[in-house]
Every structure is written in structure tokens, then in C-alpha cells.
Amino acid sequence: MNQNYSTSFTVEQTPEEVFAAINNVRGWWSEEIEGKTDELGEFRYHCQDIHRCTIRITELVPGKKVSWHIVDNYFNFERGKSEWTGTDIVFEIAIKGDKTETRFTHVGLNPAFECYQICSDSWRTYINGSLPKLIAEGKGQPNPRE
Fold it and tell me: Which InterPro entries does the record associate with it (predicted)?
């Protein structure tokens, strides 16, 4: 059984444009981000009192890869509150023919998790909807500032 959540999409833009868009987290995920999202270090995300997390950017390989580690997490709807803690999020960028493919993997986001259905549905919205829209059209659909 796959212990990770993974999805991918392709766009016509270059790997460098895709890399820049991924690192513009406020442009596709949420405007409620504290800290820098385009250099090694930590940033914080929150969505009302539903979800908060601290993310450490662990790898930035221009045009190829972005890796995040979830340092701390809180969900108000999950009994354990910390299913994401210790998991990793990886964006892998590769040329496929005349397009650029991005493979998104939330390593450790397990189908047995209480949050799996909500989280996988949310990732689909951001990764297969908002992020490609940001890359292709210059404007994603992030959560608005609260």
C-alpha cells in the first residue's frame, strides 16, 4: 500500500518558471504565510483555527526540486492533531517532451490518517488547480488573507 499522497501536472512553461511559482507559496496555497518561502529556512502557514503548521524548506534545486519538512502541525478536526508532523513535501520538476511536469508527493501522508481525505482533496485543489493556474496565467487561487 502506498504510504504517500502523490499527484502531478504538466504545463507549457519552463522548469525555471515552475520552480519560481512553487516558491511563491502565497500565490497558490495561502496568503496567510509568515516567513520567506523561497530560501532555506522556516515559514508558517495557518487557515483560521482549522490548520496551522511550521514548515522547514530543506532543499531548493532551481528548475528541478523543492523539499519541505513539516516541523510542527495542528488540525482542529483531528484527534491526534499532528498527523503531518515529521512528514515531507516534495516537488519534482522535469521536462517531458515540450512540456514541464511537476510531481508533488506528500511523503508520509498516509491513507490510514484521519486527515487523509480532507488533505488529499485540498492538495488536489491547490496542486492540480491553483498552482498550474499561477504558472500558466500568473494568478493562482490561494486562500485569501483572513
Answer: START-like_dom_sf (IPR023393)
pTM beyond 0.90: the answer is: yes
Whole-number Å distance between alpha carbons of 18 and 59? 15
Q: Which three cell numbers stand for residue 33?
A: 504565510
Q: What is the domain partition of the chain in residue ranges?
A: 5-137
Give the pLDDT score at 78. Answer: 78
Number of helices (H), then strands (E), in the chain: 4, 7
Q: How far apart are the C-alpha atoms of 102 and 89, rounded to whole Å?
A: 13
Question: 96 — phi, psi (to 5°)?
Answer: -125, 100
What is the spatial distance between Cα 90 and Cα 81, in angstroms, rounded to a whole number?
Answer: 22
**Quick one: CATH architecture of 5-137?**
2-Layer Sandwich (3.30)
